[in-house]
Amino acid sequence: MSRASTEYRYNRLTWPEMNEAIARQKLVILPTGSTEQHGHHLPLDVDLFLCESVCQEVGRRAPDRVLVLPPIPYGLNLHHIDFPGTIHVEPDVFINFCLNVTKSVAYHGFRKILVVNGHGSNAPLIDLVARKTVLETESLCFATTYFWFLMEAFKEVRESEVIAHADEFETSLYLHLAGDRVQMDKAVEDNDRMGEFVSSDSTMNYFVRFNDYWGRWTQTGVHGDPTKATAEKGRIIFEAAVDGLVRLVDELRDWPIERRADMHAGPVQSQIRW
Ligand SMILES: [Zn+2]
After folding, report:
1. CATH number of the domain enclosing 164
2. What general EC class does the enzyme of this chain belong to (predicted)?
3. pLDDT score for 144
4. Is residue 29 part of a domain?
């Protein structure tokens, strides 16, 4: 077996091996996270570490079909800047940086790319990265957030209402993957300001999109209840996320790339670039 079919880490291949990986049309995964405060009990690497761990495990289970890129460690985070250590990258810089990565991958001949998000605030940016990659290359690029694949499993074990930030879900996953880095004695519940239609961290179930500076409404940096977290819940949701993403990998690899049909009766100005 060639290394191109057994190595899932993108940058562990040599360039001749990369030619083989391209010939095999492995799906290239770009994990993205953030460096952002996560309360008193979790380190700043939560979004990055959790997302990369999930993607790496997908690679371990499907090494013949997947290459996992080094992750993007920063994102849109100015709303957390009142908490020491948080790193913010402007949305246009983030989009363009990720787009340069996906376009490089497309340039080499990979036709399918998957961007996996681990930081809620990056979701709309990653959506645009995937869409622009499709529109500006001959490859297909898809965007997802790994949380969606574990929600059903989490429903069965959760004991708190809110899933948002440094909460039962993220803390459980971190406890499962690296429990020695979680300071559970410092975990506290905290919530945002909620109205009928608006909340200060409108994660879901709100008609209005709004995210305030977190320094305005929380002293802890937590949104949710991490005291309910356990490593066992983390194990269950980690498995669900990895299983779902492996199934997604197979669906995307089978997804056809059709030829575009041009419906114009006359000539178009195909040199125009947007
Ligand atoms: Zn997080």
Report:
1. 3.40.50.10310
2. hydrolase
3. 98
4. yes
d(CA 34, CA 239) in angstroms, rounded, equals 22
* Run of H or E including 170: helix 168-178
In whole angstroms, give the CA distance from residue 255 to residue 37: 38
Distance of CA 39 to the CA centre of its chain: 20
Question: Which residue ranges of the chain lie beneath pLDDT 70?
Answer: none
Q: How far is the CA of 233 from the centre of ligand 1 (A)?
A: 17
Listed residues: CB within 5 A of ion ligand 1: 46-47
pLDDT in tens, 159-170: 999 889 999 999
Q: What is the Å distance from ligand 1's center to 125 Cα?
A: 16
Number of H helices, E strands in the chain: 8, 6
Question: Please, which residues have CB within 8 angstroms of residue 108's CB and are 6 or more apart in sequence?
Answer: 18, 22
- Residue 263 maps to a domain: no
In a domain, 171, yes or no: yes
CA distance linking residue 8 with residue 10, whole number of Å? 6
Rounded to 5 degrees, what angle do the CA atoms 213, 53, 188 make? 45
Task: Show the domain range for 230.
Answer: 3-254
State residue 100's pLDDT score: 98
Q: Ligand 1 mean position to 67 CA, how many Å?
A: 24
- Structural tokens at position 179: 């429990």
Confirm whether 85 is domain-assigned. Answer: yes
Strands 66-68 and 112-117: unpaired
How many Å apart are CA 72 and CA 16, to the nearest integer? 25
Tell how far the Cα of 51 is from the centroid of ligand 1, in angstroms.
Answer: 10
Number of independent structural domains in the chain: 1
Q: Which residue's entry shows tokens 């291949």?
A: 13
Tokens of 77: 């985070």
